[in-house]
Structure to design on (134 residues):
């Protein structure tokens, strides 16, 4: 009985996870939606906006913008590297890209989560520093 439940739990866990190819396509779509020129433009606009911060509300909005830019930049680096490595594996053998993703899925998901949380923490930390400075 216990073995059947364990097998069923394992099967359900596998079914909940998106297919590796779908995840690689999601990464590709994100990379395509955030070209280098656009990211450089976002950084340039943020640098310009920083010069015009006058109030705490301005600083709050600027920090929110920087959080989003930094999160996207971190994810872009992760996704570009994953796609490059998955493509290398796929060239070696059919199905190699999906196998690469499956092998490193846990690490990839952890980095994605850390990127989001790290940016949110830095943003919150900066707001706390700003409050202390006022």
């Amino acid at each position: 009985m216990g073995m059947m439940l364990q097998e069923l739990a394992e099967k359900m866990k596998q079914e909940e996870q998106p297919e590796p190819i779908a995840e690689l396509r999601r990464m590709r779509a994100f990379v395509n939606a955030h070209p280098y020129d656009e990211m450089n433009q976002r950084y340039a606009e943020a640098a310009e906006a920083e010069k015009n911060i006058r109030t705490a509300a301005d600083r709050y909005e600027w920090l929110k913008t920087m959080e989003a830019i930094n999160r996207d930049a971190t994810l872009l680096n992760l996704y570009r590297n994953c796609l490059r490595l998955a493509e290398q594996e796929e060239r070696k053998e059919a199905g190699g890209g999906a196998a690469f993703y499956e092998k490193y899925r846990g690490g990839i998901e952890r980095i994605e989560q850390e990127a989001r949380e790290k940016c949110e923490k830095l943003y919150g930390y900066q707001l706390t520093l700003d409050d202390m400075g006022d």
